[in-house]
Amino acid sequence: MPASGDAHEPAAGRNTSLKDRLKAYLQLMKLRIVELLLIATVPTMIFAQQGMPSFWLILNTLIGGTLSAGAAGAFNSYIDRDSDRVMKRTSKRPLVTRVVGDREALIFAWIVAVVSVIWFLVFVNLLAAVLTAVAIFLYAVFYSIILKRRTSQNIVWGGVAGCMPVLIAWAAVTGTVEWPAVVLFAVVFLWTPPHYWPLSMKYAADYSRAGIPMLGAISPAGKVASQVVLYGWATAICSLLLVPVGGAGWLYASVSLAAGAWFVYECHRLLRLANAGEATDKQAMRVFHGSITYLTLVFVAVAVDPFVGGPIL
To answer: Nearest-CA neighbor of 280 among 156, 190, 197?
Structure first.
């Protein structure tokens, strides 16, 4: 990881209490994003088991997953520190306020990353540990360093890292990666653009100021919204593949179909406003928050489905 300029940074955290510094380290991990990533973990484990896995396996997977996602978030905080310092949305992050120093943040990220991989290796299994290391690399290097500032498709391919908890959860239970896990991986992959691009529409000025080519910052609202609609449809259709591929039942199919129809409707509403030249910020944030509700509903159905009836096909 690059560390240029760190030797000349002003002293950080000199007049900060221990409590505030600990809070700052947690903020480095971006735990609100971790919550979103972990929405998929337990349901995937239950579906893989077709019942309830052991409490200790779930707990250890959640701990390891939180650490690995937190490590990726800390690396991202370090890598994005310069752009964060010119964006209003990120003005209160620890490396911007200097509660934590740049070098301290990088050391912290490495420690948490190593601990997360070791945790999976010791308490879960080898495949989960390997997938965890891959996930951290994808987010910290492939997305944060290589893609983010080079292409408007950054969030599409960089979003692969955000899909990894599904594969890790499946591997934790079965020791393998099977087709139902691939379907769930694809659902999260396709869901990421219609989740994040509306947010980039809202904060387009911030991304432009930081020189980050998020689609919402460099393209007209109509073009962004049309892409959101396409990915919204792809997400909803892909979610239904768990019925023929994974043996999901009526409960999952019903929830997935209904939630998908609602989510696609909200995406189309954003496109309609954009094409009419009307203000889109409010609807963009509605799609952003709605995408989280959609994904939560789908994965709750994934968790409940094994206990209700049997497979449709």
So the answer is: 197
11: burial class by Cβ within 10 Å (0-12, 13-18, 19+)? exposed
CB atoms within 10 A of CB 308: 11
Exposed e or buried b per residue across 206-229, where buried means at least 16 C-beta atoms within 10 angstroms of its C-beta: bbeebebbbbbbebebbebbbbbb
Which amino acid makes up residue 102?
D
DSSP H helix total and E strand total for the chain: 17, 0
CA distances from 17 to 23, 30, 97, 102, 152 (A): 10, 20, 14, 18, 40
What's the longest Cα–Cα distance across the chain? Answer: 63
- Please name which of 133, 191, 172 lies closest in space to residue 47, comparing C-alpha atoms: 172
Contact status, residue 139 vs residue 113, Cβ threshold 8 Å: no
DSSP-assigned beta bridge partners for residue 311 = 249
pLDDT at 191 exceeding the cut of 60: yes
- Which of residues 148 and 109 earns the better pLDDT score? 109
- The whole-number average pLDDT for the span 278-285 is 89
pLDDT attached to residue 193:
95
Whether the CA torsion 180, 225, 223, 40 is positive or negative: it is negative
The rounded distance, in Å, linking the Cα atoms of 198 and 194 is 7
Average pLDDT, the chain: 91
- Name residue 59's amino acid: L
Stretch 118-132: mean pLDDT:
98
- Res. 19 pLDDT band, cuts 50 70 90: confident
Q: What is the pLDDT of residue 13?
A: 55
pTM over 0.85: yes
Whole-number Cα distances in Å, 25 to 35, 79, 113, 283, 306: 16, 15, 14, 33, 38
